[in-house]
Amino acid sequence: xxxxxxxNGVLNISYLDAGDPLAVPxxxxxxxxxxxxxxxxxxxxxxxxxxxLPVIDGNWQHEVWRCNETIDSGMSGDIxxxxxxxxxxxxxxxxxxxxxxxxxxxxxxxESILNLQTSRDYPHMLRIWNYFPxxxxxxxxxxxxxxxxxxxxxxxxxxxxxxxxxxxxxxxxTRDGKTLVYFLASREAGKQIENPRQMSAFEYxxxxxxxSPAFSRAMYxxxxxxEHLYISGTASIIGHETHHRHDYIRQLDECLNxxxxxxxxxxxxxxxxxxxxxxLSGLKVYLRHPEYLEHARSYIHDRLDKATPVIYLHGDxxxxxxxxxxxxxxxx
Length: 332
Ligand code: 3EB
Known about the structure:
The protein is an alpha+beta fold. Helix content is 20%, strand content 35%. The chain contains four helices and 22 strands. The strands form five sheets. A seven-stranded mixed beta sheet has the order 5-21-20-22-17-16-15, with helices on one face. The longest helix has 23 residues, at 248-270. The protein is globular and about 45 Å long. The two termini are 16 Å apart.
């Protein structure tokens, strides 16, 4: 519904209705991300990604990544990707059955991505989305989200200072058999933004995972004249603890407080031209229980504004006591 096309930028993101002509890939398209019951990459056009999360509601359907520079494409192992002089956009889809466990699958994915970044010279991961089945299920004594954290950490180069270069991320549970990861990397570094209300995830105590979650709360990047802010999946966590365990609306309120705090921090640290969550270009609200849609939607409408582009997706959240999570993106 909302187009944020900016002809001077080298990377444009739009949140579009079904039926919008820009949702059909052309030579300027990096990816069209949509949602449905099963994760897939269109075998006839690998720019069309479907994330295996059912849409509950929303005023947009397609997240479209476009670029007005020459785009080339390639394959590296299981990763298909597109690239320009400045950026690399890629995706990987794997069958859960192909690996013994989540830890090894994740390690494989992250090592493959890092190899590609090295060989093509896009050293800076800015934003990554991780969608995998049954995130809260326990296998071999470890919750799958925690095994994911272990595999991701093992793949990373954790030499001194690595924490300052972690991307913004989301990690959400699907209920199909496929794992889909997609990402944006760059030749130039972005700027990490952490949230003063929350402990950095990479510093969490080990009660949440044997190896800490390797992501930043947000990443700021400039593309030509445009500025972008990629806000990670944000939950009702203060410090490192879950708040409002059984209360959907108070969790939602806390997510938005966290996002507003991140935006204020981005204003201090990067002088970004956005004041609050209501000005974000697009939001995704991941709900563990679709029955809470009405409550969530009326809260969002009151707190933000009816025109803010929001999609509500049915997904599992990485801690059993989290009922929802919100991510956002801003493009000037
Ligand atoms: C949290 O703040 C909530 O492991 O990549 C949010 C976004 C969360 C990304 C990840 C986890 C991740 O800890 C969970």
